[in-house]
Write a structure and sequence with these properties.
Ribonucleotide Reductase Protein R1, domain 1, 5-stranded mixed barrel, binds zinc ion, alpha/beta, binds guanosine-5'-diphosphate, 10 helices, Rossmann fold, 364 residues, OB fold (Dihydrolipoamide Acetyltransferase, E2P), single chain
Length: 364
């Protein structure tokens, strides 16, 4: 029983300083903003640097990274292979990689024939996805930056996506203040019973503030809604292998010609994709980030007491529990448990919460 391992230790809530004042948190509404992970002085330092950046530099977007070089898309859509300027260093930047896919950068041309360039500086980030570095635990490893939304593609079967998996991705996205959408694919395969159950899930996620709908690449259901959702945005697409991510993208952007139904598919190809994200251009302002890394993002670095902040419906009730350090397990006068019992908080969400508090993995 995972609950047994939860100590009664008093956990002090640590609120990260919210430096992302200009962060567009569209779905927050009246809700309190959750704390953000991996806040360091570094981004403030970047913002400082950017103020006196060379006005002569070109502007570009990092669409691919290997760690030693970066593909920078210029304003005409041409990709340049760039390195970081030698003196390009962030003294107090506590990340293992200074530049991530999605970063907007200032750069200059080094060689017009070989399409090589140098990155001089980066724009302030709207947000980012990061995980704790495997090698340096005090450091974060950036996966992607400037993300408008994460889109979770799920299937109730063929293969079955667990609600725990969906909720875990939602928590990860919340922890970086990235809006999320939950899509249930392969509608054509399901009978009325499954569809009715799915509708309940869609309603549940919608009520929590996450846009949610069904799609099918076979019948075309929801495909235009999916396409509209992506327009002029940078989206991180996530979900298990086989749920139909590549197929959906191929329907709306045939020019991508993504391989489907193979071992090597959209979310599972190349050697560096587990570490570095890659960006696909659907149309000039519409990008998809392929980041298998998001599935691997752990919750281990989130303090148990903070996990509740990343469930919007729990966050709403945090001030109403009797104890400030209530973990909503079996404490007396717990507003969260009361809401679960009253049916105001979905049991599946509460179970996902308990699983995360108990150190459950939910990566499957
Ligand atoms: P990915 O790993 O998420 O990129 O999944 P793929 O796009 O490779 O799809 C996996 C399999 O599911 C392929 O055989 C697709 O033809 C199939 N598939 C994808 N979307 C649908 C759908 O909406 N309905 C049905 N019935 N099959 C689908
Ligand atoms: Zn409580």
């Amino acid at each position: 029983m995972p609950l047994a391992i939860i100590g009664k230790k008093r956990l002090r809530l640590r609120y990260w300083k919210h430096f992302l004042d200009d962060c567009n948190v569209k779905k927050e509404g009246k809700r309190k903003a959750p704390p953000i992970r991996f806040q360091t002085k570094s981004t403030a330092a970047i913002q400082q640097r950017t103020e006196d950046v060379n006005a002569q530099s070109l502007k570009g977007l990092v669409i691919r990274s290997t760690g030693s070089w970066y593909d920078v898309r210029d304003e005409e859509g041409l990709a340049w292979r760039c390195r970081l300027r030698g003196k390009f260093k962030f003294q107090d930047l506590k990340v293992t990689n200074p530049v991530a896919v999605g970063d907007r950068v200032y750069w200059e041309i080094e060689n017009e024939t070989t399409l090589q360039g140098t990155i001089n500086d980066i724009f302030p980030r709207q947000n980012y996805l990061a995980r704790q570095s495997v090698h340096k635990t005090a450091h974060a490893h950036l996966l992607a930056a400037n993300i408008d939304q994460t889109i979770i593609i799920a299937t109730l079967s063929f293969p079955r996506t667990s609600l725990g998996f969906i909720d875990r991705l939602l928590v990860v996205a919340e922890s970086f203040r990235i809006p999320s959408v939950v899509i249930f694919n392969k509608q054509d395969l399901f009978d009325d019973d499954i569809k009715a159950y799915q509708q309940e899930l869609i309603d549940m996620y919608q009520n929590l503030g996450y846009q949610s709908f069904g799609t099918s690449s076979v019948t075309g259901e929801g495909v235009s809604q999916f396409s509209d959702l992506l327009q002029n945005k940078v989206s991180v697409l996530s979900g298990h292998s086989g749920v139909g991510k590549s197929t959906l993208l191929n329907v709306i952007a045939p020019h991508l010609d993504l391989r489907t139904n193979e071992v090597s598919t959209f979310a599972n190809k190349g050697v560096h994709t587990t570490t570095f994200a890659e960006m696909f251009e659907l149309s000039p302002n519409t990008f998809i980030i392929d980041s298998p890394g998001i599935k691997e993002l752990g919750l281990s670095e989130i303090n148990k007491a903070e996990i509740g902040h990343y469930f919007p419906e729990i966050r709403d009730l945090l001030n109403e529990c009797k104890f400030d350090d209530c973990l909503h397990i079996d404490e007396p006068k717990c507003a969260v448990k009361a809401a679960v019992e009253a049916g105001q908080i979905a049991m599946s969400r509460y179970e996902s919460y308990l699983s995360m508090i108990g150190g459950g993995d939910n990566r499957r």
